[in-house]
């Protein structure tokens, strides 16, 4: 089942549901996936271009989530954005050569490759789908 199919299968009444007051809604989680795909794409670009000077540190996910309100957005709108961002990421990864995939970026604590970031992104999405399945549905 694709990510799009998964989110489309969720009843609309659940889109703004939180299982605890301090937790995100399902739409908040989808926006988080969009934001992190953008960040993973940037980080992968830095690595693939052989840039070991630009730090590719983690972002504060709670800060990002607190500065956007998706309650008024439709699931379709969020999924459209997700698809566009994900497609951009796919184009980048499809055009990273074997040589480029060996370059390592610097996050300050360790070195990481564009290829590794692609795998992390996929795992990150799967993680959140599992969380939604276990705690929201």
Structural description of this entry:
The protein is mainly α and 137 residues long. The protein has a single domain, classed as Four Helix Bundle (Hemerythrin (Met), subunit A) (Up-down Bundle). Helix content is 56%, strand content 4%. It contains 5 helices and 2 strands. It has helices at 3-8, 26-48, 61-66, 75-94, 114-135; strands at 104-106, 111-113. Strands 1-2 form a two-stranded antiparallel sheet. The chain starts with a helix and ends with a helix.
Q: Per DSSP, what share of the residues sits in E-state strands of 2 or more residues?
A: under 5%
Instruction: Give the overall shape, derived from the CA principal axes.
Output: elongated
CATH topology: Four Helix Bundle (Hemerythrin (Met), subunit A)
Between the first and last Cα atoms, what is the distance in angstroms?
A: 16 Å
Numbering strands along the chain, what is their spatial order in the largest sheet?
1-2
Total DSSP helices: 5
CATH superfamily: dinb family like domain
- Content-based structural category: mainly alpha
- Whole-number mean pLDDT: 95
Low-confidence stretches: none
Query: Which architecture would the CATH scheme give at its second level?
Result: Up-down Bundle
Output the radius of gyration. 16 Å
Counted up, domains total 1
């Amino acid at each position: 089942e694709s990510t799009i199919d998964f989110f489309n299968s969720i009843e609309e009444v659940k889109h703004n549901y939180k299982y605890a007051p301090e937790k995100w809604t399902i739409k908040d989680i989808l926006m988080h996936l969009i934001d992190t795909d953008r960040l993973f794409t940037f980080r992968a670009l830095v690595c693939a271009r052989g840039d070991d000077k630009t730090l590719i540190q983690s972002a504060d996910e709670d800060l990002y989530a607190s500065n956007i309100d998706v309650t008024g957005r439709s699931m379709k709108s969020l999924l459209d954005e997700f698809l566009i961002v994900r497609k951009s990421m796919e184009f980048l990864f499809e055009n990273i050569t074997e040589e480029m995939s060996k370059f390592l970026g610097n996050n300050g604590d360790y070195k990481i490759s564009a290829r590794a970031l692609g795998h992390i992104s996929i795992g990150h999405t799967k993680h959140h789908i599992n969380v939604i399945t276990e705690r929201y549905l």
